[in-house]
Amino acid sequence: MEVTTPVRTLPYRKLELYEPEGDMLTLQLGPQHPSTHGVLRIKLHLDGEKIIKAVPYPGYLHRGVEKLCEQLTYVQMIPIVDKDDYIAPMHNEQALVMAFEKLLKIEVPRRGQWLRSLLSELQRVASHIFWLGTMSLDLGGALGGGSTNFIYCLRERELILDLFEELTGSRFHYNTHCIGGNRHDIPAGWAAKVHDAVNLIRARLPEYEAMSCNHRLFIERMRGVGVLTGALALELGITGPNLRASGVDHDLRRDAPYDAYREIPVNVQTAKEGDCLARTHVRLAEMRESLRLIDLLIDGMPTGPINSSRPAKQANQIKIPSGQAYASLESPRGELGTFVVAGNGEANTSPYRLKIRPPSLHALAALPYLLVGHNVSDAVAILGSLDPIMGEVDR
Amino acid sequence: MAVIEEPRSYFHPLYDVMLSTPGLSVGVAPLDRLLTWGLKNALWVFPMATSCCGIELMASAAARVDLDRMGTIMRASPRQSDVMVVAGTITVKMAPRVRRLWDQMPEPKWCIAMGSCAISGDFYRNLYPVVPGIDTFIPVDVYVPGCPPNPEALMHGLMRLQEKIGLQREGKLVPSEPRPDFDAMVRPPALSRIGDAARAADLSDRQEQAALTMCPDAAPGVVEDEEKGFAQPATQATPPLNTELVELLRDRFGVTEFPLNAPPVVSADKHLELAATLQKMGYRQFLFVAASHRPAKEGSEDLCEVAYGLRTVGAGTKEAIWQVRVPTNQTVPSLVPLFAGADWQEREQYDLVGVKFAGHPDLRRIMMSDDWVGHPLRRDYPADKECAPWR
Amino acid sequence: MIFAASLAAAVVIVVLSATALALWYERKLAARMQTRIGPQFVGPIGLFQPVADLLKLVQKEEIVPMGADRVLFALAPPLTVIFALAAAAFVPLWPGVAVVRSDVGVLLVIGFGGLAMVPVWMAGWASFNKYALLGAMRAVAQSISYGVPLVLAAMVPVILAGTMDLDGITQFQATHHWFGLWPIIPGLPAFILFLLAMLAESNRIPFDIPEAESELVAGVTTEYTGMQFGFVYLAEYVHTVVGAAIGSVMFLGGWDGPFAPGLHWLLLKTLCLFTFIYWIRWTLVRLRADQLMTLCWKWLVPAGLGLVFLSAAWNQTGWSR
Asked: CB neighbours of B288 closer than 8 A, spacing ≥ 6?
């Protein structure tokens, strides 16, 4: 972990300093653009095709989730936060209920913890595999090799979504976590299906690697592009695979273990370079690691209850005493946390203020630093490699 | 108010030429059938994908459902597409762009509202930034309900659209009203579309009341029913701060109160110094800023509590969370000089809660548009604030 | 004269219908590579899909964006088709027959191929759209650069056969050997070089940066609607089909083949090359503009020069005579 000199160049540079007589093109990338991963607008100041300044404008999907959570009770808001990070809803739910459990001092039973970790790892594989698909789409276009890889990746993602559908009844937006545990226990025969899906994905991973990170053209497009130094990444609050690709060995699953990770050690995957290729390698390695963990989790699944109490049926069933807590976990995009201000002096059924710490927001905040000096094609690659989900950025 | 069937029947100028040329007009009917067949079977989709439904829209082009089977492909440019599939929540900030993209599409064009957010705003309907249904500003042909709808449902919606095109062109589905002025068309949502007229007005309230009265006195945290098979809740408390930090705060920053379930309060003038000290101690990763608004009550003024979080890196990571309590009209020292990651987070808190950060180089709105009035996450800000003309 | 005119009309019809078929073929091929089915419901095995697309495109409203240069904007799409089709006139169909026989056929074909850049630039400039402008800029840079290796690769069969007449080249291959196979040293690398340069000239992946969909929305075609877009769409395929035909004429012996030489061999070889081009398209990701230039000027142009030298040396040996 070589993180020494802090980087203190803020990207608020003045355009006038850059060749005042030169012709510049202002290109608005987004908010509706095939590869902005949702509705992000980036204002690019171009000299030819070279980016000399990039200003991202998020907020086009700001839906007021935090305000809505203040209106709802603790039971009602779990399906709402599913929609934040819509590639990995499992982690959203869990990050939320973990904060409530921390305030309530509820311990989830061992089987519930293992089930949560299992779902979390399955979701991580689904999320990373979807990311690989969209990354290829960004590089190869919808009318080219990228879309082939994308469709292969989505085919594998469907396997996991099918598992989730069998478990919870929904392809995503599961509403399966509840305060104190989980709502849905493993159905009969599900474990075997998990094994089948995991084996299939593991067997097919070399194919994707051949089409992506082991492919000559892919490497040419990714290597040395968008280099994020470890110091800058830390300072920006970037977490997850983006941080680990910059050489910082940090993973909440190992460093602040929760749930089954207290019992199962996680091998943290890192890379040194900090460029788009390193981020790809880290995600692919994490996918393999998650597949290994899934096998361990499903085989070692303890018996017992999955919930410390009966899942709440009434909206106001759960009251949380006044207090503030922050709980976080390692989502596929990094540290997803929930800061909850419960009650205003007395126990209440809905929070006073709820703040979700979105890892994607911090990843996007790196764009002004990373894009400068690259050209438009690289902008798309860099944006894709950071894996932002706008639902989570804007909430 | 019934659903308004938007009358849109665009006919190519070719028809006029054929109809006005003697001898050619006989060809119009067979030609029309041929052209209708063409229209129906080459619906190119413009994916107006904003959120979750967009993922299912992508999945519907993938191998399992494969919209290409019915000749539907995705076009990235609105100029070359026939169907705009609005997949996801449309916010007030996004709605003008959606409207503009819709206007950029060439006639004949159709619109599919995919998912409940696009149809009615879903549970975000009554929130300040969300447009309650896209049919308030663009005419929708097919509604595909679901949250999100499965890819199969989208394909079904496209097939219903094909039927509709056929009926429209045959004249069986005639427009019921004269063509409204679309340029000025932003109208209030048709409430009746999702509400049942026969339903009593206060039924929702009564249902909610019934649900609330079913368990009037829920004990904090413990659920009333403890049947066998459920584990008992653990009772030991986890301290919010480690001892190292408690000592630091007590000795150097004059903090006296350390509540068990809340971060300690640091005075605003010591705040920046604390952050710098922590950064030197290894708390190098920026976590979050969360401001919460406490409106003025008797005995206390209008306050903002701004909680900050930092984290150490690597094995055995620890987090440090503290809060600053300032009157709403005063500023909090910004952490941007120390942590670049505070930039967007502080902008967000400024935008939503209205806390001003001193020393922030770029304190602009980030979530709401620049001309937005008020700070939505303040407690006295109505959640269902109107925003003309979109909601 | 009448024969030539009717032949020309026949060639236009054949090329256009082959293109329509190619549209279907390519979509099916792509779908199969992606574990999908592809067009299925419109006509038997989706065969009428291009017809439906065309009928739909004809009916769409044609929008000229505000601020666009109306004349250039309207002129560009038909011109792309015309330039792409023009090259087809020089393809020898069967021994001694082409719509236009010219002693400098190779030069004219490459010239028309290069001209195809002009309407692309017209479209990009006239659209009054930044994405289109960026796309057109890239297209011009790419077309000019890749014209050089294209000419150099085409020089190899010209030197080997000793003629610039496309039919002459085919005749020579029929009596001696196909240049793509023998002489193996200047021949096969020249064929590969020609294919690469042709991919770049017709803006196919990995060289499709002018219309790079994930970056520039739809590149030069961003503002085109209806049939105007249809023309550009068609021209892309015509360009590829004709390019594949010329590649097979110059390196794979054109109409020459075992049993009965004739048009069918040309079509078969064209189909094979076309499939190969689309196989590449649906497999690779695209390169970046500066990488394309590096590839062209640092690798392909020197290689082309070397190949020209080698083919001259081969001629000096006199082994092929």
From this structure: A237, A326, A337, A339, A355, A357, B307, B308, B309, B345
Question: Among A243-252, A294-303, B294-303, which stretch is predicted with the lowest mean pLDDT?
Answer: B294-303
Neighbours of C276 (CB within 10 A): 13
Using N-to-C axis directions, what is the helix angle for A110-140 and A89-104, rounded to 10°? 150
The answer to whether A285 and A303 have CB atoms below 8 angstroms apart is no
Which pLDDT score is estimated for A18?
A: 54
Is the distance from CB of A275 to CB of A224 less than 8 angstroms?
yes
| A271 and A360 both lie in a single domain | yes
Domain assignment present for residue A3? The answer is: no
Asked if residue A34 has a cis previous peptide bond (ω within 30° of 0), the answer is no
Structural domain span for residue A52: 11-57
Give residue A290's pLDDT band: very low, low, confident or very high (50, 70, 90). Answer: very high
Positive or negative, the CA dihedral A59, B379, B290, B271 is: positive
How far apart CA B18 and CA B55 sit, in angstroms, is: 44
Classify the C-alpha dihedral A116-A117-A119-A120 as positive or negative: positive
Q: Please write the tens of the pLDDT for every residue from B224-237.
A: 444 434 444 444 44
Q: Burial level of C293, CB count in 10 A (0-12/13-18/19+)? A: middle
Asked if residue C229 belongs to a domain, the reply is yes
**Parent domain of C68:** 61-317
Among A121-135, B199-213, C204-218, top mean pLDDT goes to: A121-135
Q: pLDDT (tens digit, 9 = 90+) per residue, A34-92?
A: 777 778 888 888 877 788 888 888 888 888 888 888 888 888 888 888 888 888 899 99
Residue with tokens 């808001």: A77
Q: Model's pTM, two decimal places?
A: 0.87
Interface of B with C (CB under 8 A): 10, 12, 14, 34-35, 37-42, 62-63, 66, 68-71, 75-77, 79-80, 82, 104, 106-108
Residue type, A329: L
Chain A touched by B227 (CB under 8 Å) = yes
In chain A, % helix, strand, coil (3-state, to 5) comes to 45, 15, 40
**Residue the block writes with tokens 């992508």:** B58
Which residues, at least 6 apart from C258, have a Cβ–Cβ distance to it below 8 Å? none
Instruction: Report A:130-159 residues touching C (Cβ under 8 A).
Output: 136-148, 151-152, 155
Confidence of residue C224 (pLDDT cuts 50, 70, 90): confident
Return the ∠ at Cα A214 (arms to A219 and A143), rounded to 5°. 70
The first and second tokens of residue A171, run together, are 């392809």
- In order of A378, B10, B201, C155, C175, the CA distances from C316 in angstroms are 48, 68, 98, 16, 19
Least Cα separation, residue B129 to chain C (angstroms): 28
B160-174 per-position pLDDT tens digit: 888 888 887 777 766
A48, A130: one domain: no
Sign of the four-CA dihedral C229, C234, C237, C238: negative
Chains within contact range of chain C (3+ C-beta pairs < 8 Å): A, B
Number of domains in chain A: 2
CA distance A196 to chain C (A): 20
Asked if A270 and A305 sit in the same domain, the reply is yes
> How many angstroms separate the CA atoms of C280 and C65, rounded?
35
Q: Looking at the predicted structure, is the pLDDT value of residue C164 above 80?
A: yes
A72 and A80 Cβ atoms separated by less than 8 Å: yes
Tell me the pLDDT of chain A averaged across its residues. 84
CATH of domain B41-185: 3.40.50.12280
What kind of architecture, by CATH, is found in domain B243-358? 2-Layer Sandwich (3.30)
Domain assignments of chain B as residue spans, ordered by start: 41-185, 243-358
Q: Do A145 and C212 touch (CB under 8 A)?
A: no
User: Does the beta carbon of C205 lie under 8 angstroms from any beta carbon of chain A?
Assistant: yes
